[in-house]
Amino acid sequence: MILLLSPRKNASTVAIETAAEAEGWTVCRLTNWRVPDKFLNLDEKIVAYGEPLFVAAMADSLQLALIEPQFDWLSSLPFEYTYRKIFLTSLKEARKYPSTVFAKPADDKCFAARVYENGLAIEASQLLPEETPVLLSEEVTWVVEHRYFIRERKVAATSPYLHNGEIIDDSFIESQSDAAERNNFVQKLLNDFQIDLPPAVVIDVGYIAGSGWSVIEANPVFGAGIYRCDPNLVLAVLERSMVSQHQISDSDKRWIIVRQLV
């Protein structure tokens, strides 16, 4: 296994780098976004990890297909998994929203995901295409937020990351009953085969004040921070998050989003 890492170092890429080296993977932290010639046309599987655009560039050069949730995945969930109204729209239509709303780009981080007083207040560049996909949802208060790395509908690793809007530290303690309730909620989602799931995905769940446990969002594995997850357990999910374009199974096809690189 070969792992290509973004030139930009952060806690997650360093942890993944260390874990992959310990597993005997060939690890290369690049100095730019160009795949070295020695990694082209190899039979050995290659995966990449870092910023989504970096991974997309690697995938384009290496003819890899990226596994990730479709833009409408969150908005298609039944209310029992979200406890709020969510809908997918375009940036053009989102700007017409008349009242307070939480808005986030459905693809990449092209503007800040947060609560806006109305659609016109969305702080997105005028250069963004009007058809840019945007998720809008009701404003809620998240008490605590957890990240789950999931492979083939099984939890590989999990970690809390926010408590009352603040990054957690060693002082954060979760009761056994809260942990059990959270894990039961996630397991209910994974066991519900009416809900389609990519074979490798990151799902964030949180507790909404006054409502209960809910899905916050789903993200691609290859660009997701690991927080306090065990990086050794994350590796298997990362490995499943991309496949050769020449070996795409029928079940994987629906989880591949084709983008135009700028």
Could you walk me through the main structural features you see in this protein, from its secondary elements to its overall organization?
With 262 residues, this protein is an alpha+beta fold. The chain has three domains: 80 residues; 53 residues; 87 residues, D-amino Acid Aminotransferase, Chain A, domain 1 (2-Layer Sandwich), CATH 3.30.470. The protein is built from six helices and 14 strands. The strands form four sheets. It has a five-stranded antiparallel beta sheet. It has a four-stranded antiparallel beta sheet with strand order 5-8-6-7. A hairpin with an 8-residue loop joins β6 and β7. α1 packs across α5. The protein is globular. The mean pLDDT is 95.
